[in-house]
Amino acid sequence: MPRWLRTAAIAAAAVIVVLELVLLALALGAPTLVTAARFSTLRADYTALRSFLGRMPKGADLHVHLSGAVYVEDLIGWANAKGLCVRPADFTILAPPCDEKAPPIAQALDPKRQELYDDIVNALSMRFFTPSAATPSRHDQFFATFGRVSAVTWQIVPEMTAERLRHYAADAVQHTELMLTLIHPDYRAKAIKAIENERNFAARLAILKANDLDGAVNDARQMIDGWSTAIDADLGCDAAREKPGCDVSYRYIAQVNRNADEVDVFVQTAFAAALIRVDPRVVGLNFVGPEDFRVAREDYSRHMAMIGLLARDVPVALHAGELWLGLVPPRDLTFHIREAVEVAGARRIGHGVTLAFEGSDTLLKEMREREIAIEVALTSNDVILGVRGKEHPLPAYWAAGVPVVLATDDAGVSRIDLTNEYVRAARDYRFGYRDLKAIARNSLTYSFLSAPEKQAALARFDRSSDEFERTVVAERSVLANMAALIAGLFAR
Ligand SMILES: [Zn+2]
Questions:
Q1: Residue 482 above 90 pLDDT?
Q2: Which domain holds residue 37?
Q3: How many whole angstroms separate alpha carbon 222 and alpha carbon 156?
Q4: By C-alpha distance, which of 63, 120, 110 is closest to 86?
Q5: How far is the CA of 418 from the centre of ligand 1 (A)?
Q6: How many angstroms does the Cα of residue 413 sit away from the middle of ligand 1?
Q7: pLDDT exceeds 80 at position 492
Q8: Residue 437 CB contacts under 8 Å (≥ 6 apart), including other chains
Q9: How far is the CA of 223 from the centre of ligand 1 (A)?
Q10: Are 191 and 303 members of one domain?
Q11: Contact 225, 147 (CB under 8 A)
């Protein structure tokens, strides 16, 4: 047989094999294969990519600061309903009575005052941020927003939660864990006073137990009772729970301000652990606030030891390694993630951006073996730290087999949603559909739900994913799906 004929015969045979494989995949109804192939063909087209990932079931958003998650436009409405004021000097929202220096926020809703409305939205988020002498960096602007809204956010937890649940329903997210402050300020002040002269951790804890720690926990539980009733009412949930948001599960994570006095941090941590032990709606604790601030840096190791002692038996997620070269002295980049894992016993690490500075190989091995999940917040790291693209450790965590989840951190301040984070992962790190699906599933596997709740949540995720994939397959003809499968063989 002439050589050309033999080559042609081999080529023809190869084509037939590929076609048979494609037909077999279709015949077997391999919707995951077809969906993955379709995804790989639309990666370069933002419109198609965004639309695909918007509809794709994304499991849970696990790293969420409730007061930074809601959009300013909603905050203005809630502040107006409470009759609050706004100080034009820096657009901080203040409690009444309003006066000339802080008139009612209602004036921003006057159609003739669009400029004021815009100024408030910009001051309380990253929208159109430009550095100034007063706020020289995106880092500073980001963290400054929280202080400007705190007069309103503590009053509107049910409103904020309900809004997020409605949003998540629309963004194909089925579960979330929301960080917020749960300790009452009166109890907190009283407890700080009770232990302020004691340095020993065990002795401090004994004093707190003898000084109504249980009472403070009960007060918090009653507060959450009130919130859950108000949230259901806000969403209009009935027994069927079919209205938007009613079928999105949520839990709270008790946050501790890591930049408070050391005694205050102890009180907050002891309270959080005690609450988590008795209330299934509060599933973990986390330390929040800038990790680069003086107190957070200087007290870091003592904080980790404190968590290790007070919260060894409850789920802990910790912001650790949300730092970068230049922001802090180099030595601060070398141990935060490791101490959070080894000393504090964190089950999830938020950010972990400093991986490269921590002797990454042994740390990655330890995180993989102990199944410590990494909560990756791509937009937040870009905005606050300026870390993006090739500098970000996401590919290193992924390649090492550490469980990765994607999270929004502060969607309202950053002006994003969870779909956006999936778009970034697909665009900047070339994750394929099956990778993203595994990341979405991880967000339920590494949630702080109880074992039976987790099992049910994963079963629901699998059903939603199957349905999504079948829909993607049904949207195109058999021929178009075959073409996508063939193109998918060569794409990556
Ligand atoms: Zn965070």
A1: no
A2: 3-42+467-490
A3: 16
A4: 120
A5: 14
A6: 12
A7: no
A8: 32, 56, 465
A9: 24
A10: yes
A11: no
